[in-house]
C-alpha cells in the first residue's frame, strides 16, 4: 500500500491553485523555494530524526540535542549556507537549543548595545562559535519588572573593573536558555553602581566557563533549573541558574553604545538615541508573531487532515461513517483556527515591513511613530501567542482521544509553545502597555495631535462613536468596509468608555489599577482590529493563481466574523451592531464554513510542511493514520518485554495473595 | 527558618472560620475527618513520594507505580480500611494506575451487568485482586460511537462458546487503562452474533493473561499504546492495545443481566429494565464532576498562594513591590476560578443526591426523570471538565514563568487532567445530547408534559421570554432572584431561538446538523444555569461558622457575574439585560474581588490539601517558595556533573573549530 494517498479525494476537491498558495504563505517565490529546499534537506538527514524524543530521559535528550546542534553547525559550514538559510535550517530541525539564544539574543545584544570596538573584539568570536553566549536577564525574583533586577555591577576604580555580584538568593539569574550547561559567555544584566550611585540596569559581557575544560570560572555557580512542561519539548534546552560571588570583569565589557563608564568611574550617556532599543524589540516581536503563525498552522494541519481521515457516527445502511470534518461543531472550532493561522502569517509579514520603517525613521531621528509601533507590536505579540497556545490545545482536542498520544505530535507542540505567552513580555502586562497607549491617544483626540499608523482610525472617533452598521442581509457581512467599520467602532467605543470611567477617579493611576480588566479588553479589541485590517489590506494586493484570492477572502471573513461572534458582548453592548445583525453574521459564518470545507486539506497542504517537520502520525500527508499509529505503539520501551519489569515484585504477590510477606 | 509561615499575614486577614469552611468543602464533618486522616497517612509514608516523577523514564515510572499500587493495597489490607477509606487513599496517592480501572470500571461492570451467578463467581476473585480486570470498550477506530465497535463475539452452538475476534486493524481495542501490561482479565465489548445475526454491542468477561506467568493467552496480542501527554502524568498508566484471533470463551462469560444467549443460541431480553445502565452513567459522571472540583481547586490553591508570595512592580521609595494578587487583572482571572472550584464542588454534591434519587426511582420502575437526569449529568460533565482543563492552564500562566517548571506541579496536573474532556463522552458530543433534550423540551411546552428537575424553569417560558431585568444599581446584582432570572431567561431564549431556527428546515435532522454550533451554545447556557442555581440552593441551607456563608455568597456572585460577563453577547443580544446593566454587573464584580481578596489564602487553605498532595513548590503551605525552587533545580539529572555529558563530543569541537573532523 506504499504510496497510496488516502487524502487524494480531499485534494481533488480543492478550488484553488495550491502551488500559488504555497508562495503566498511563504511570502515570496524566493522564500518558498528556500524553505522547501531546506526543509527537505533536514527531513532527509537521519541525524535530525526526532520521533523518539518523548521517550528519552533528560540526559539522553539533552545529549541528543547537543549532537544535533553540532551536526547542524557542521552542515551549515559544509554547505556554506547563508544566514537566512542557516536560520531556516535551525527552524526545521525543530528542537530548542542553546544555539537559538546564541544567534537570537547574544549576538544581537552585542550588535545592538556594543560599541564598534566591542563589535570588533566579540563578534568574530561569536560568529565562529569560538565562544557560545546566552542572554542573562531574568532572575528568580524578577521577570516582568526588568527595572527590579537585583544583580549588581559595581565599578572598582582601583582596578578598572566591574564586580558582578548576586546579593540575594532571588537575584540568581534564572531561566536564560543555553546558560545551564553550555554557554561560555553571557550578556548579564545588572544594576550599574559607580561611587555608590545606582544607575539602573545595564548589560555586561561576562565569561562563565573555562574555554579549556568548560568548568565554571571562580565565583560562579551555574546549573540547569530542571524539568519543564512536557515530553521532549523545551527540555532539550538548558535553561539555567547563575550566581555571582564578586566576579571581576574589565571595564570594557560593559556594553557601552548608549551609556559609558569612564576610567575615572564617571557615568555618561552617549548621543546615540536610547530609542534604538525599541527597534530590536519590534524585530524580536515580529519573529514571535511569525512563529505563532507557524506553530498554529502545524496544529491546524494535523487536526484538519485527521478530521478528514476520522469517521464517527452517521453511517447509513452500513456505508462509511461521516468524516468528522463534516460536522458543523468541528468546523466551528477548526476553521477559525485555520483562518487565524493565515491571518497571523499576514500580520507578521506586515510587521516585517513595520520594522524596516521604524529603523529608517530612527536613523533619521524621527521618533514620531515609535509609541504606536511599540504598542502595536506588544499587542500583536500578546494576541497571537495567546490565540496560538489555546489553538494548539483546541486542535489536540479536535483529534479526540488519539490527540493525547505523543505520537500525534500535539502534546509536544503545545508544551514547547506555551512559554511564548510569558517570555519577551507577559501577555497581560503587554496588553496593559497597549491600553496606556490607547488612553493617551483618546486623551489627545481633538488636541491637533494626529493618531498615526494602526491607531489612525481614531481620527474618525466622532463618526465611529455614533455610526450604525448597515447590514441587512447575511451577504452584507462579506463587505470589507462593513467589517472594518464595526471593528473600528467597537475598539473606539471601548477605549472611550474606559477613558470616561478613568476620568471619574481623582487619582488617574488608582483608576487605571481599578479598571485593569476593562482596559485589557479594550486593548484586545484594538489588536483584533489590526489583524483584521491587515488581512483585508493583503487581499487588496494583487494575488495571482486560480481561486487563491477567493479562498483567502473566505478565510478573512471567517476570521473576522468568528471574532465578532466570540466577542459579541462588546459589539452589541456598545451598540455597534444589533442582535439581528449578529444572527445574520452567524448565518454568513455557517455558509463560509461550507465554502471552505472542500478547500480545507489543500489549505493546510499550502503550508508545505514535511512529515518530518509535522512530527505527527495523525497529520501524515498520505492520511494513512491507523496502521502507523498501531506500529508506533510498539516502540514504547514498556513493550520491550511481554511481561513487564516489576511483575514478580509487585503484580504477582497481589494476585497470589502474598503481599503480606512481600518486600516492596 | 524552618517553621516560619510566610503567608501568616494573609491567613490573619481572613474574615471567616477556616475550620468550618473545611467541613463545608469536604461535605460533612465525617468526610472532612476521613479525608484529613487519609491524606496525612499518605503524605507521611515515604513510599508514596512523587516529586521525582517527572524525571523518571517510562519504564522506571511504570515500575514505580506498580510498587506504589502494591504498597497501597498492602496498607489497605493491613489497616483494614473501608471501601470509602481505600478510595480516598488511592485518591491521595495521586498516581493513575491499573487499580483505578479494576475498582472503578471492571468491578462495577460485573456488578451492573452480571447475573447473580456471575457475581458469585467473579466478584470474590476481583475483591481480593486474585484477578485484575480492565474495561475494554474503545477501539482504534471507534471511541464516541460505541455502536460502531467492530470486535465480534460469535456464538458457536457446537461448543457452547463465544469466539471473540478482531476482524480489522481498526477493531483493535485501544486506550483501556490497565490493559497494556497488568490486567489478567477484561470486560470486552463486542458485537454479539448468533446464527449470523448481529445483536449489537454486549459485554464479555475475557481472560487475557496466564495467572501462572502473566504471559498473554493464545490468540491474544496485547501491549501498551505508548507515551502520552506530559511528564509523569498519565504515563504511569498502561493504556493498552488488544487484538483477538478467534479467542474462545464459555457462553457464561457474556454479561447476561439484561440480555442472554441460551444454550441453543437464542438471543433473549430479561425483564430487567435497560435503563439501569443510566444509573451507572449518572454515578460515573458525578465522580468526574467531583474530580473536576478537586483538580481545579489544586491549581487554584497553587496560583493563589504563589500570587501572594510573588511581588512585581509598584515599589514605592524602595519598599516592597506589589503582591501580584493585588492586581485587578490577576483577580479577574484567578477569583472566578476560585469561585468555580467551589461551584463545582457543590454541584457535584448535588449530583450525588441526584444519583440516589435516580436509583430509587429505577427500583420503583419510575423512568420519568431519567431523560432530564441524563441530560443534566452529561452537560455538567462537559461543562466542569472543560472549565477545569482551561482553568488549570490559566492558573499555570498566572504563576508567570515559574509555572512552566515541573516543580510548580501545574504542568503535570494539566497533562493528567485533560483527558477528562474526552473520556466518558467527548465534551462536544455530550453537549449535543443536552441540546437534543432541550429541543425536545421546548417542543413539548404547552403540551401538558411538565418539565421536571433542572429544566423545570421552562415551565415559565412565557414569562422568561419577555421578562425584563430590574437591575438599576450595581448592588441589585447581588440578589439571587435577579441572577437566577437572567440566567433562566438567557437559557430559555437561546433554546427557543434554536427551536425556531430548526423549524425552518424541512428535514429536522438536516437542520440540527446545520445549527450544531448554536445548539452547543444553548446547551452551555442551560448547564451554566444549573451550576449557578445549585450554588444558590446551597446558600439557602443552614451553614454554620463565622463568616462562612457570607464569603460563599461572594463566591457565588463572582461565579455568576463572571459567567455573565464572559457570555455577555448571549445576555444582551437576547435582550435579557441592557448594556447599562452589563456595566453595573462589571462594577459589582470589581467590588466583589476586593471583598474576596483578604479571604483568598484562607479560601484555598480550606481545601485542606497537604503539601504532598499539592506537589508544588509554588503552592507550599508556608509560602517559602524561592529557596525551595532553588534547591529543587539541583536535583535535575543534568546537574549530576558540572560539565555535561556530551561536552567532549559535541561542544568542545564547536568551540575549538574542530567540527570538520568530528564524529557526530
From TrEMBL, chains A, B:
Q: Which SUPFAM superfamilies match?
A: Acyl-CoA dehydrogenase C-terminal domain-like (SSF47203), Acyl-CoA dehydrogenase NM domain-like (SSF56645)
Domain (Acyl-CoA oxidase C-alpha1) spans 278-439
Q: Which organism is it from?
A: Mangifera indica (Mango)
Q: Which GO terms describe its cellular component?
A: peroxisome
Family the UniProt entry places it in: Belongs to the acyl-CoA oxidase family.
Primary residence: other
Binding-site list for FAD: 138, 177
List the catalytic residues: 424 (proton acceptor)
Q: Which cell locations does it reside in?
A: Peroxisome
Q: Which domain of life is it from?
A: Eukaryota
Q: Which GO terms describe its molecular function?
A: acyl-CoA oxidase activity; FAD binding; fatty acid binding
Identify the residues that the record assigns to the Acyl-coenzyme A oxidase N-terminal domain, covering every copy: 17-132
Is Ion transport tagged as a keyword? no
Entry keyword set: FAD, Fatty acid metabolism, Flavoprotein, Lipid metabolism, Oxidoreductase, Peroxisome
> What name does the UniProt record give this protein?
Acyl-coenzyme A oxidase
The prosthetic group or cofactor this protein requires is:
FAD
Boundaries of each Acyl-CoA oxidase C-terminal domain copy?
Answer: 480-656
Amino acid at each position: 500500500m506504499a504510496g497510496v494517498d488516502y487524502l487524494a479525494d480531499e485534494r481533488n476537491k480543492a478550488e484553488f491553485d495550491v502551488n500559488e498558495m504555497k508562495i503566498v504563505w511563504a511570502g515570496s517565490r524566493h522564500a518558498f523555494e528556500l524553505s522547501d529546499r531546506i526543509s527537505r534537506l533536514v527531513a532527509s538527514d537521519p541525524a535530525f530524526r526526532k520521533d523518539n524524543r518523548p521517550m528519552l530521559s533528560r540526559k539522553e535528550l539533552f545529549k541528543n540535542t547537543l549532537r544535533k546542534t553540532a551536526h547542524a553547525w557542521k552542515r551549515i559550514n559544509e554547505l556554506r549556507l547563508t544566514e537566512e538559510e542557516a536560520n531556516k535550517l535551525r527552524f526545521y530541525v525543530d528542537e530548542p537549543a542553546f544555539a537559538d539564544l546564541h544567534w537570537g539574543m547574544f549576538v544581537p545584544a552585542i550588535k545592538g548595545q556594543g560599541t564598534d570596538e566591542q563589535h570588533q573584539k566579540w563578534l568574530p568570536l561569536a560568529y565562529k562559535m569560538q565562544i557560545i553566549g546566552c542572554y542573562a536577564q531574568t532572575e528568580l525574583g524578577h521577570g516582568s519588572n526588568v527595572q527590579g533586577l537585583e544583580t549588581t555591577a559595581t565599578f572598582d576604580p582601583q582596578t578598572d573593573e566591574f564586580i558582578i555580584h548576586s546579593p540575594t538568593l532571588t537575584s540568581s539569574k534564572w531561566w536564560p536558555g543555553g546558560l545551564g550547561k553550555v554557554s561560555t559567555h553571557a550578556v548579564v544584566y545588572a544594576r550599574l553602581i559607580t561611587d555608590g550611585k545606582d544607575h539602573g540596569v545595564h548589560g555586561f559581557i561576562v565569561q562563565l566557563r573555562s574555554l579549556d575544560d568548560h568548568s565554571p570560572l571562580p565565583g560562579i555557580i551555574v546549573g540547569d533549573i530542571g524539568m519543564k512542561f512536557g515530553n521532549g519539548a523545551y527540555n532539550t534546552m538548558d535553561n539555567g541558574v547563575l550566581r555571582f560571588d564578586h566576579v571581576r570583569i574589565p571595564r570594557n565589557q560593559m556594553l557601552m553604545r548608549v551609556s559609558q563608564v569612564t576610567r575615572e568611574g564617571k557615568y555618561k550617556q552617549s548621543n546615540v538615541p536610547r530609542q534604538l532599543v525599541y527597534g530590536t524589540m519590534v524585530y524580536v516581536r515580529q519573529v514571535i508573531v511569525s512563529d505563532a503563525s507557524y506553530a498554529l498552522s502545524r496544529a491546524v494541519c494535523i487536526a484538519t487532515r485527521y478530521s478528514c481521515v476520522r469517521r464517527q457516527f452517521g453511517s447509513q445502511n452500513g456505508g462509511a461513517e461521516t468524516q468528522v470534518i463534516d460536522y458543523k461543531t468541528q468546523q466551528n472550532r477548526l476553521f477559525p483556527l485555520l483562518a487565524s493561522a493565515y491571518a497571523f502569517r499576514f500580520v507578521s509579514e506586515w510587521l516585517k515591513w513595520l520594522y524596516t520603517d521604524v529603523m529608517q525613521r530612527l536613523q533619521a531621528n524621527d521618533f514620531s511613530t515609535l509609541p504606536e509601533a511599540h504598542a502595536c507590536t506588544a499587542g500583536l505579540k500578546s494576541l497571537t501567542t495567546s490565540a496560538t497556545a489555546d489553538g494548539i490545545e483546541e486542535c489536540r482536542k479536535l483529534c479526540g482521544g488519539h490527540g493525547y498520544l505523543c505520537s500525534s505530535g500535539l502534546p509536544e507542540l503545545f508544551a514547547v509553545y506555551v512559554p511564548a505567552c510569558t517570555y519577551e513580555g507577559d501577555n497581560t502586562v503587554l496588553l496593559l502597555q497597549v491600553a496606556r497607549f490607547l488612553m493617551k491617544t483618546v486623551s489627545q483626540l481633538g488636541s491637533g495631535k494626529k493618531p498615526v499608523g494602526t491607531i489612525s482610525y481614531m481620527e474618525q472617533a466622532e463618526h465611529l462613536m455614533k455610526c450604525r452598521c448597515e447590514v441587512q442581509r447575511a451577504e452584507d457581512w462579506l463587505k470589507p468596509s462593513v467589517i472594518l467599520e464595526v471593528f473600528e467602532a467597537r475598539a473606539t467605543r471601548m477605549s472611550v468608555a474606559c477613558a470616561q470611567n478613568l476620568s471619574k477617579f481623582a487619582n488617574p493611576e488608582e483608576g487605571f489599577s481599578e479598571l485593569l480588566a476593562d482596559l485589557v479588553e479594550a486593548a484586545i479589541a484594538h489588536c483584533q482590529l489590526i489583524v483584521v485590517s491587515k488581512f483585508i489590506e493583503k487581499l487588496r494586493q494583487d494575488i495571482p493563481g486560480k481561486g487563491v484570492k477567493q479562498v483567502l477572502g473566505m478565510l478573512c471573513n471567517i476570521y473576522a466574523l468568528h471574532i465578532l461572534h466570540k466577542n459579541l458582548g462588546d459589539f452589541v453592548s456598545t451598540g455597534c451592531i444589533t442582535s439581528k445583525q449578529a444572527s445574520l453574521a452567524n448565518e454568513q459564518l455557517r455558509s463560509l464554513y461550507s465554502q471552505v470545507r472542500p478547500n480545507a486539506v489543500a489549505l493546510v497542504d499550502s503550508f508545505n510542511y514535511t512529515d518530518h517537520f509535522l512530527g505527527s502520525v495523525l497529520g501524515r500527508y498520505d492520511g494513512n493514520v491507523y496502521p502507523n499509529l498501531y506500529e508506533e505503539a510498539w516502540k514504547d520501551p514498556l513493550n520491550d518485554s511481554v511481561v513487564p519489569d516489576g511483575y514478580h515484585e509487585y503484580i504477582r504477590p497481589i494476585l497470589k495473595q502474598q503481599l503480606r510477606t512481600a518486600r516492596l
